[in-house]
Specification:
about 475 residues, five-stranded mixed β-sheet, four-stranded antiparallel β-sheet, 15 helices, elongated
Length: about 475
């Protein structure tokens, strides 16, 4: 029997050695293995959504997030409205494995611009670059990676076009609260110099004279005028242009900067007409904006009280919005701006812009609101309570359906009719009297009206000042009238 050989086959040993050498050679060509760029792409998507970028950025891309934040108007920034970013794909370049492209769909909610449920959607992409030194993927950002079509030095504007507001109608379909002509009386600071005024002292003097003509607090108006910008129109008072209200056009014309602007405002037939019910419409005060938990915006008119506030969504409609990219005009035209409108360079030599509309929606008119008020009954109710020497309120109901035909209070500012909390008292006698009349009682039938009546062991007396002549046996109609 022969012994086993201790020597390996020469051919097999050469094959293994060659395979190992080839493997080592291939690994050396590819370099060390890199992690997938998908995690970096996801972190970049989160940065676009929140405005806070945790993904490493290249040196050129580090200034981009702050620049884009500055370029976006209020209502489009991440802190103002929700931004949703969907990662569509992440692709490593075949010809350069150290670079990858991440493609996204960006959706910016437009609720902060008044377009509830609508969004500005666009596709964009960003380049990721592998840093061998840092051992990480970095985002090589450009402005249009965050906002499609935005170039370095460009900006984004959002212009709102208010929708036609719905009117509040009375029960017969007659308009109660609607757009009416007004005159805005105030100081136009941009005209002071042209009208011969100079310096801060002249601003104060002109403001004081305007306040005197407008019959508003002079010190308060002067303070507002001095705090306003050099080109501001500082409103003192808004007057109705109804033929019955005097508008001091001639007096304002003699004051430097004094001016009357024609405008419209949502108003009732008169300043006090059904004010408690209809409410008011206009720009909210700073205090109202602060207390609104984000529902109200400075400078944006809205329903502030009454039906105007309660039915704001119905009356307001939906504003139109135009979002425009304003990129620097460098003399060339990009493919994205083929249909853009180019602004001319101004007289001072400032570079113009190439403007491109990125999003546009038309305004949707608001709907009318029909109230149960009767214009004639409301006017009569206000006339009645205005004659009262004590706080008074009157609410007129139609018994057949419970509709409120009028609600009036006096003096102004005391919402007795709508906000007062009172026991029914004698007002309920209307109900009991109607029941008696329907049961056959004759208004001239004699009834007893004593000084006091004991009910359930409690003595109930007439009101203080009840006439003695109406105590005892009197016609029911007299007892009802006196009570």
């Amino acid at each position: 029997m022969s012994e086993p050989s201790s020597r390996r086959s020469p051919g097999r040993g050469m094959t293994l050695g060659l395979a190992a050498a080839l493997l080592l050679s291939t690994t050396a060509c590819l370099g060390p293995a890199r992690p997938s760029p998908e995690d970096s792409a996801a972190a970049l998507a989160t940065g676009i959504e929140t405005g806070e970028f945790s993904v490493p950025l290249t040196e050129a891309g580090r200034e981009v997030p702050a620049a884009v934040e500055e370029a976006l108007p209020e209502g489009l920034r991440p802190e103002d409205a929700e931004v949703t970013v969907t990662t569509e794909s992440v692709t490593v370049h075949e010809d350069d494995p150290a670079r990858a492209t991440a493609r996204y769909t960006v959706r910016r909610d437009l609720s902060a611009l008044g377009l509830d449920g609508q969004e500005w959607s666009y596709g964009t992409d960003a380049e990721l670059v592998w840093s061998e030194e840092a051992g990480q993927w970095r985002a090589d950002l450009r402005p249009d990676d965050l906002v499609a079509g935005l170039e370095p030095g460009g900006s984004v504007t959002a212009r709102r076009e208010p929708a036609e507001r719905g009117s509040i109608l009375d029960g017969s379909g007659t308009e109660l609260m609607m757009e009416r002509k007004v005159a805005r009386v105030g100081l136009d600071k941009s005209r002071l110099e042209a009208d011969g005024a100079e310096g801060a002292e002249d601003v104060a003097d002109a403001a004081r004279r305007v306040a005197a003509v407008a019959e508003v607090d002079e010190d308060a108006f002067v303070a507002r005028a001095e705090a306003a910008g050099d080109k501001a129109f500082v409103e003192a008072i808004t007057l109705r242009v109804d033929g019955a209200t005097y508008v001091p056009v001639d007096e304002l014309a003699r004051i430097p900067g004094g001016r009357v602007l024609e405008d419209t405002a949502v108003l009732a037939p008169s300043r006090t007409f059904a004010r408690e019910v209809l409410g008011t419409y206009g720009e909210p005060s700073a205090e109202q904006v602060e207390d609104s938990a984000g529902e109200l915006q400075a400078g944006v008119a809205t329903g502030l009280s009454g039906l105007q506030a309660d039915w704001e969504d119905r009356l307001a409609g939906t504003p139109g919005v135009t979002i425009t990219l304003k990129n620097p005009d460098t003399g060339g035209t990009s493919a994205a701006d083929t249909d853009a409108e180019t602004d001319e360079t101004d007289d001072a030599g400032t570079q113009g812009t190439r403007d491109r509309v990125a999003f546009e929606s038309d305004p949707v008119p608001g709907q009318d609101l029909t109230a149960t008020l009767d214009r004639k009954v409301q006017a009569e109710a206000e006339e009645v309570v205005a004659a009262s020497e004590v706080p008074a309120g009157l609410v007129a109901l139609r018994p057949s359906d419970g509709h409120v035909l009028a609600a009036a209070s006096a003096p102004e500012g005391w919402p007795v009719a709508t906000a007062g909390s009172y026991a029914p008292g004698s007002t309920f006698k209307v109900v009991t009297t109607l029941a008696l009349l329907r049961d056959g009682l004759d208004p001239q039938e004699t009834v007893q009206c004593p000084d006091t009546l004991t009910v359930g062991g409690m003595a109930v007396g007439n009101y203080d000042g009840y006439p003695e002549s109406s105590v005892g046996s009197i016609p029911f109609s007299e007892a009802f009238a006196e009570s």
